[in-house]
Design brief:
The chain starts with a strand and ends in a 16-residue tail after the last strand. Strands 2-3-1-4 form a 4-stranded antiparallel β-sheet, with helices on one face. The chain is built from 3 helices and 4 strands; from the N terminus they run E-H-H-E-E-H-E. It is globular and about 40 Å long. Helices cover 31% and strands 28% of the residues. By secondary structure, it is an alpha+beta fold. The relative contact order is 0.29. InterPro entries: Dimeric_a/b-barrel (IPR011008), YCII (IPR005545). Pfam families: YCII (PF03795). Belongs to the YciI family.
Length: 94
């Protein structure tokens, strides 16, 4: 799977202005089964996405569709989950 870190480079007011289309984008990829989890960082300097193990070029295309590309940089890390607490066992091999 992938861990995607979003780091805002624009003021939070500009981020807020894009929140509705960003949430619609998130919903589209949750509905399609690509996204596993998402949330804001605390303090609010960006967000984090957990993404299924898909082709990296496809992931890059999906990220480029996010309205937040105008306000955030993306850092993508591939993680091969081999151990997990029982509650998260479904993440192994995802």
């Amino acid at each position: 799977m992938y861990v995607v870190y979003l780091n805002y480079f624009r003021p939070v007011e500009e981020v807020e202005a894009l929140l509705d289309p960003h949430v619609a984008w998130l919903n589209r990829y949750f509905d399609s089964g690509v996204f596993i989890a998402a949330g804001r960082k605390d303090p609010r300097t960006g967000g984090v996405l957990l993404v299924k193990d898909i082709d990296r070029a496809r992931l890059d295309t999906i990220l480029a569709e996010d309205p937040f590309v105008a306000v955030a940089h993306y850092e993508v890390t591939k993680v091969n989950v081999t151990r997990a607490a029982e509650e998260f066992a479904v993440l192994k091999g995802i």
